[in-house]
Amino acid sequence: MVLVANGVSAAVAAKQATATIPIVFGVGRDPVELGLVASLSRPAGNATGASAFSAALGPKRLEVLRDLLPQPGLIAFLVDSRLQGAQAEMREVEAAAQAIGQPTLVLDGRSDDEVEKAFATMAERQARGLFCGASQYFQAIADKLVALAARYRIPAVYEWPEFVAAGGLISYSSKRGETEHLVGNYVGRILKGEKPSDLPVQQPTTFELVVNLKTAEALGLKVPPSILARATEVIE
Fold first, then answer.
1. Which of 41, 78, 119, 171 could form a disulfide bond with 158, CB atoms 3.0-4.6 angstroms apart?
2. Nearest-CA neighbor of 28 among 9, 55, 48, 3?
3. DSSP string across 146-201
4. pTM here?
5. CATH, residue 37
6. Rounded CA gap, 177 and 42, in Å?
7. Do 132 and 198 fall within a single domain?
8. Together in a domain, 85 and 120
9. Are residues 40 and 69 in the same domain?
């Protein structure tokens, strides 16, 4: 028997429920911080799996936005502070911004009202660009985020390609489906007799940069060759 736990809440609940039944998780946060494993290389307990380390991708989205805006000025970072790991995500972003001297405006988006207020604040503070943190809530309101960015004419970098397909400007993420593939592989190996404690936590190795040139044109932006050369998909 193997318990499969996709998402932070399911993984934490499974770990709290049993210390003996093997657990294979797929999470977007640091599984050590979540208490799921002792370390990435040596899980030590009854759980292992794959982690997309979404918090670590915040600085990469900031990097993409700075490449797009050579003289960006103030950049906003929209985060869902309700999530486990949100504080780690903010620390990663703030450290990266501080290291390069990039002024950032961290705004919370835990509800529709907060998201709308956040965009109004960006306009008031004259933020030149925006990048979004990891959040299932943001995925659920993707159309709203894209529409607000268009209304306020704020270039934005999102978490997943679905935002770009909906009219967003750019996304940067691990490849959809890779984490699930890694989880499925580990389930098979455990069912054949291997122990979770002997299987190191895996991370995705493929990342996607998706660009919407129609949106860039509507914003009056010219996407630099450095971004286009790295793009895995360009919507024209």
1. 171
2. 55
3. HHHHHHTT--EEESSHHHHHTT-SEEEEEPTTHHHHHHHHHHHHHHTT--GGGSPP
4. 0.85
5. 3.40.50.2300
6. 24
7. no
8. yes
9. no
